[in-house]
Design brief:
It contains 6 helices and 6 strands; from the N terminus they run βαβααβαβββαα. By secondary structure, the protein is α+β, with helices and mostly antiparallel strands.
């Protein structure tokens, strides 16, 4: 079983400002906006069930300190929590690795 977690939520973003300047948000703030209770529950289930895989987009869209709104001239978010095609492409290697193990 695979559970795909939500991508980072970037508070206060609006489409026009993203085009001109895709800003970033601290990873700790993005994690605060995520439902920690749900994440704790899923991590506990993962310990109980060996066949449960949790895919976390934070690993593809953030480094240790920052969740990025885009890089190298590419905008990754359409709004606060919806990825553009360029943003979704950042998840490609994670999904490919997962599917190759199934």
């Amino acid at each position: 079983m695979v559970v795909f977690l939500d991508n980072p939520y970037i508070q206060g973003w609006r489409f026009p400002s993203l085009i001109s300047d895709p800003s970033n948000q601290s990873r700790s703030r993005s994690e605060q906006l995520r439902n920690k209770l749900r994440l704790t529950y899923l991590r506990d289930l993962q310990k109980k069930y060996d066949n449960l895989t949790i895919v976390d987009p934070f690993d593809s869209l953030c480094d240790q300190e920052t969740c990025f709104g885009g890089k190298n001239g590419k905008v990754w978010y359409l709004d606060e929590d919806h990825l553009t095609v360029s943003g979704a492409a950042q998840l490609e290697s994670t999904l490919f690795d997962l599917l190759s193990k199934i």
